[in-house]
Specification:
The longest helix is centred in the middle third of the chain and has 45 residues. This protein folds into 4 domains: about 170 residues, Butyryl-CoA Dehydrogenase, subunit A, domain 3 (Up-down Bundle); about 210 residues, Helix Hairpins (Orthogonal Bundle); about 45 residues; about 110 residues, no CATH class. The strands form 2 sheets. Strands 2-1-3 form a 3-stranded antiparallel beta sheet. The protein has a two-stranded antiparallel sheet with strand order 4-5. The protein is built from 19 helices and 5 strands. A hairpin with a 2-residue loop joins strand 4 and strand 5. The chain is extended, with a radius of gyration of 34 Å. It is mostly helical. It is a multi-pass membrane protein.
Amino acid sequence: MFVPAISKTTMILENQLFASTLIPPLAAVIGPLANVFPIAALVTSWRAEYTASGTDASAKALQDPHWCTALNASSLAAAFLGTIILLMLLARRIRYIVGMPMVILLWLMTPGLLISGVVSMHIYAPPLRPQQTYSQGFWYAVIAAVLYLFASAMLVINMRGYFLDHYSASLQLTKHEGISILQGLLPSLWLAVWAAAFSQVSGLTYVDALYFSENTLLTVGFGGMLPPNNAAMGMIIPFTIGGILSVGFLINGISTLVGRINESNLILLREEKDRFDAMRHIQISTGKSKKWWIFCQSLLALSVLWCVGAAVFWKAEMREQHLTYFETFFFCFVALLTIGFGDIYFKSNAGKTFFVVWSLIGIPVITIFISNLAEALPFLGQADITFGRWVRMLGSRLLRRVTDKHPRVRSWMKTKANTAAAEQSVRSGIPFLRPESSEEGQNAPQNNGQTLEILAELFSGEIADEHDTARGIVVAIRSVVRDMATAPDKRYTYEEWVYLTRLIRSNAALRPLSETGEEEDLVEWDWIGEDSPILSGKSEVEFALERLCESMARYVRQQRSLQNERGASVKNALRSMMGLEGPTRRRHSVPSAIIKLHPWYSIEI
């Protein structure tokens, strides 16, 4: 038994896939989300002075130095400009080699300016302890600097892969990935706009309104803040409805982007069918181990988010509430599950600030964990399927009893079933050997007499008529297009691939040559090679459709060439018959004429 192993080459290819296809969309999601934090840092002073109560919530803001405000505004402008250029780059409005360095430079300037302001504030105008402290604006600046450093580092990794020729200078995004990026922008825009509106209605500061909006958006409801008037209560209703929808879009978008890396390509004996079966076995077994590996990664990410978040909250709330680590650990559990008992809520500036970014990170982490849990433990997700099978089995037994007692009903049902099967066969077009199981050919069927007869028929002799081949290709394209619409991830059986391969290779000798003299179209492959349909990086349906279209294009070129040759032959024959051999006699003896050979074909002589 061949046991596949994830080689070093495979890991390198997966890293290149992550750097080329996932980093730019993830950066496009992180960038607009991080833009909210420089706004909060700009509109809020970085220092506050305690009042008689001595709490962070009642502290009064102190005026920031002018140089601090200038650094804040400059960092916000650089962040917005970099985000706009990245979105234009993803929309292919700017060349990669021009746009990506600009985004990296601007997103490195943003944390550079913020860090300069933070360090300068700490050195030249620090809060006077214990009467003064840093406000939420200061901590938002710190978090924004960290996020932009992380995003720019990811883009540097992407740019490095381009300079090393690991991939081309283009960002190929599918329609779903573009939608996922737009969905990722919604929560940040929703939070920023509604926090500003809510702060005007409720009288809260912008950062407190941002914390309250995040608390409400995630349906946690700690109870530390309440809407002070009827206008604020009325705003919460549309905000919550729209916010929950935007968070759902964010979850779907990030899950779609991260889910692409789960589809790994394997780069790794006898007859062709044995090689196909071996490759299919490797694909299935490696897919299972890959699901467990992804599940362990998501579990580790959730554990780090939980434990590290508890440690940060424990440290941040030590002065205000004197909480223990276990209490903050339990609090994180309650917050992640959006239970919100209300006995513990944030009171410190650092705790409120960190909760906003921590909760936003927790949304995709816990969602991906749950989805990977269902994939790694399929029996959890298939419990309802098993129950449905039992129900169908009991129903079929009852139906069999009825048909045994009424032969006419049984005969009528059999006739209807045969008619439906014939109609489905005509619609499908391709005479595939379709297994009765509903798993869409994930496992190759066992060889039987019917399979051997079909294979013998397929491999016996040459195709009698090239036009029959063209008709077969058209019918195959129609069936594959239907598969792409209904089951885009379908895996064809070996017998289906036999028929498709014969159509694809029917005119392989007509392949065009590229500028380097090599044949462009792919018609020959090894099931365990890098050019195998199973390892192509595309779905088998998409691979088959591309190869069939190439085969049809070769047939069209062949027919056009034959038509030109026949036309030239007929033209020369007519000239010979009419005595028009030389150009001089054609010009002086006989006027030019048009001979109509067919309703749609004529020759000018």
